Structure formats: structure tokens, C-alpha cells
Amino acid sequence: MITVTDKAKSRIEEIMKDEQYDSNYFVRVAVESGGCSGLSYKLNFDNEEKKGDQFFEDKGVKVCLDIKSFLYLAGTELDYSDGLDGKGFEFHNPNASRTCACGESFSV
């Protein structure tokens, strides 16, 4: 399961409103090969379910993971930062043994 902080929820709701996404849309989170540590996070909005998708809901935010990504992201917290260090979504992944300095890639 992925949990969502209040800041991430607010930003997701803001994006969905700005992009005029209806309630059929959800947040799709995935892990892809790449980045300086070997694996990178991908986050986008989708409204089409794919075979093997795993759905979770936290604080009213519907989150979707493919089965491969679920294995890497179980227990991860999705957060949003708008501080001086940069704006964007952040993943607090307890499964990551190493992350890069920018926080966009990891290894297990």
C-alpha cells in the first residue's frame, strides 16, 4: 500500500482541478529502470485500468500500481514538497537501500 500525505493530497487535487480530470482519473505510480541509482519513480494521472493493476486509496486519493512496481513500493509514502530545495512529489520508500542525491532514483 502507498500512503499519501496531506500536502500530496492537496497538490493532487489541485492538478486534477487544473487539468479538468474527472473522478475516473487516478494517480498511477510506477518504477522504471534508469536514474543514477538504477531505478526511478514515475507518477502520472490515468483513467484506464491495465491488467494486473493494484489499487489503493488513502485520504480519498486513488493510487494505482502495476504488480512489478508494487513489489518495490509497498509501504511507501507519497509526499509533496514546495520548499527551497525544490518543488515536487517525493517518495519515502522504506524498501530503498540507497537513493541518489536528487531523490528521483533508488536501488534495493
From TrEMBL:
All copies of domain Core, residue ranges: 2-104
Species: Sphingobacterium paramultivorum
Domain of life: Bacteria
Protein name: Iron-sulfur cluster assembly accessory protein
Example GO biological process: iron-sulfur cluster assembly
One Pfam family matching this protein: Fe-S_biosyn
Entry similarity comment: Belongs to the HesB/IscA family.
InterPro entries, per the entry: ATAP, ATAP_core_dom, Fe-S_cluster_asmbl/transfer, FeS_cluster_insertion_CS, HesB-like_dom_sf
NCBIfam families: iron-sulfur cluster assembly accessory protein (TIGR00049)
Organism phylogeny: Bacteria, Pseudomonadati, Bacteroidota, Sphingobacteriia, Sphingobacteriales
PANTHER family in alphabetical order: IRON-SULFUR CLUSTER ASSEMBLY 1 HOMOLOG, MITOCHONDRIAL (PTHR10072:SF41), IRON-SULFUR CLUSTER ASSEMBLY PROTEIN (PTHR10072)
